[in-house]
Inverse folding.
């Protein structure tokens, strides 16, 4: 390792290392979130030797690591026809069998499980993050997918404009995985960007992006009291976005300084537990 001198305060080092090829496969899927699970299962079921890598010690991506849920509607806009099925529905059925989800067909709009929202919230899928972890592992194992967890993607190995391998890091150090096909389900297009594929960040006019939100769970909630408040609120303020008045009151008191107009609360499967966005 040699230090590169720079004019400013920032210093950099040139680090040269031989990186071994640790694995070869036909299809490499980078990222074990919802799309990565589906891609890996579909690949393996079609007869391809498939390897799935993820930086966490479990699958599910933001749905498990970030508690993002419930799954938004898998039905048509009129709420009459389920249009997202396939591997997604297989996952739902496995979670239901574990007692860790409710089938979206059983969840109407304006229910506590969809934050009492009507527009676009008919037939959401409430689920428990731990049930999703277990169901995903079972699904990919049965499909014959090889799994490598605690493994982060770092860079691509290129021959011209073709990816031939990726550099990864895990407890074994740096390594290269070679494959015939690469599927980028990293959520941020990390593989594509590292390979030199043009991309756009943010909206065209000013580069702004949707701000991040924080999901967390709260317990010991009086479910009946929440339901009663919602019904009374709807009677007094019909059509107003739920909890808008609470947010406004908190902002006026200086207790809610962030520039957000609404919050969403979603009932969990366990009594007295709610997920807050």
């Amino acid at each position: 390792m040699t230090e590169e001198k720079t004019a400013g305060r920032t210093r950099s080092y040139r680090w040269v290392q031989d990186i071994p090829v640790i694995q070869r496969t036909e299809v490499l899927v980078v990222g074990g979130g919802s799309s990565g699970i589906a891609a890996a299962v579909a690949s393996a079921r079609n007869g391809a030797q498939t390897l799935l890598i993820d930086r966490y010690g479990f699958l599910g991506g933001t749905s498990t690591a970030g508690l993002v849920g419930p799954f938004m509607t898998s039905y048509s806009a009129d709420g009459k026809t389920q249009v997202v099925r396939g591997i997604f529905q297989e996952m739902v059925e496995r979670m239901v069998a574990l007692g860790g989800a409710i089938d979206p067909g059983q969840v109407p709009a304006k229910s506590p499980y969809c934050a009492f929202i009507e527009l676009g919230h008919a037939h959401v899928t409430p689920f428990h993050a731990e049930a999703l972890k277990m169901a995903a592992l079972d699904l990919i194992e049965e499909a014959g997918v090889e799994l490598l967890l605690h493994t982060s993607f770092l860079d691509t190995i290129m021959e011209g404009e073709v990816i031939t391998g990726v550099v990864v890091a895990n407890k074994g150090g740096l390594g290269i995985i070679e494959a015939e096909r690469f599927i980028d389900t990293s959520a941020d297009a990390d593989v594509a960007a590292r390979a030199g594929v043009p991309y756009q960040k943010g909206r065209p006019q000013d580069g702004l992006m949707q701000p991040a939100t924080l999901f967390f769970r709260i317990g010991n909630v009086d479910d009946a009291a929440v339901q009663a408040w919602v019904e009374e609120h709807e009677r007094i303020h019909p059509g107003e976005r739920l909890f808008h008045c609470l947010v406004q009151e908190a902002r006026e008191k200086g207790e809610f300084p962030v520039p957000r107009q609404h919050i969403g609360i979603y009932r969990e499967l366990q009594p007295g537990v709610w997920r807050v966005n």
